[in-house]
Write a structure and sequence with these properties.
By secondary structure, this protein is of the alpha/beta class. Strand 2, helix 3 and strand 3 form a beta-alpha-beta unit. The two termini are about 35 Å apart.
């Protein structure tokens, strides 16, 4: 192991935000007891919110010196975390990255530090549970919690603790973070997986804990959800191109979806060209029906089409980035997204 956590080590908590007025107070105030116990600093790295998020954080910071509002001119989460580490992490040994769009157990930070101490991990990652609020929102959340939507990604389930290649970022040893250069700010999405690639290449170890988890609030509309998954696909393509890395089988299957569906345009020439679209549609409907039966929730049948749309958006984003990269040359660190 490269290092072990101890109760006396200082912790830097970073919350990147952009228009999170509905969530930022609950998340930052919920972390205050931990910050006071551990001598931690909470930095809200705001990327230019226009919904009042900075004002909310400023009011909290007036009453709680543990909270710092920091402007993030780079806007992206990667840039915000890097800047917070540079400005406020000199005395800290550990970084906890927090998503303002999520809910955390009251003992979240303590459990992460205990897991790092127990395992000797350089990074502790967590599982995510998508939590919908209202019927339509639950339909959007359902496929993200199932193999139908997430393909069996380890950090999207309720895992047994184990060593992994990648997971949802939670706790990281700051010397390890600095040793590999922090996040690549050219990545608007998938920057966590890209950093994990470099951590593992440098010999650092990533532990997926089963001792705690994050409740994630997914996008509330289909348009926002598809835009998010399009960006996820673009980020994965950037990662593949930067590191000349292959795709996992589940990722390769989704990447092949957009070209397969595009063949349907040639169906007037021969019906066989429509087979990928027909097969995908049938699989989505069958998957939704299976979820509805398993959960005894009739509305869960809609999770099948939602999952299919997520996959199609991811695949479209993947190929959009791959084609753009072919025109400009494969992206390296610091190139624009």
């Amino acid at each position: 192991a490269h290092g072990r956590a101890s109760a006396g080590m200082s912790v830097l908590v970073v919350i990147p935000t952009l228009n999170e007025a509905a969530h930022v107070a609950g998340v930052s105030e919920g972390l205050l007891p931990f910050a006071r116990r551990r001598g931690a600093r909470i930095v809200v790295a705001d990327g230019g919110s226009t919904d009042g998020t900075p004002d909310i954080v400023a009011r909290i910071a007036e009453a709680a010196p543990e909270v710092v509002l920091m402007h993030n001119p780079g806007r992206r989460q990667a840039a915000g975390v890097n800047l917070a580490v540079a400005r406020h992490g000199a005395e800290a040994a550990w970084l906890i990255r927090v998503d303002a769009h999520s809910a955390y157990p009251s003992d979240y930070g303590d459990v992460l530090l205990a897991e790092a101490a127990r395992t000797g991990a350089d990074s502790v990652v967590v599982a995510m549970r998508a939590v919908g609020q209202g019927r339509l929102h639950r339909v959007i959340a359902t496929p993200q919690n199932s193999r139908l939507g997430n393909g069996g990604a380890a950090h999207r389930g309720a895992p047994e603790g184990r060593w992994v290649d990648h997971g949802h970022h939670a706790l990281m040893r700051l010397p390890a973070f600095r040793a590999v250069g922090g996040y690549d700010e050219a990545f608007s999405h998938n920057e966590d997986a890209e950093l994990d690639h470099r951590l593992r290449a440098a010999g650092f170890r990533i532990w997926l804990t089963a001792a705690t988890a994050v409740d994630y609030v997914p996008r509330r509309t289909m348009g926002a959800l598809l835009g998010q998954y399009f960006a996820f696909g673009r980020g994965r393509a950037r990662n593949v191109l930067k590191h000349r890395a292959g795709l996992r089988p589940r990722q390769a299957a989704v990447a092949g979806l957009a070209p397969g569906l595009a063949l349907a345009a040639l169906a007037p020439l021969h019906p066989a060209f429509a087979l990928p679209f027909a097969g995908w549609t049938a699989a989505c409907l069958a998957g939704g029906a299976a979820l509805a039966l398993a959960r005894r929730e009739p509305e869960a049948i809609l999770a099948g089409p939602v999952a299919g749309a997520m996959h199609a958006a991811w695949s479209a984003g993947f190929w959009a980035e791959a084609l753009a990269a072919a025109r400009r040359g494969a992206p390296g660190k610091g190139q624009p997204a």
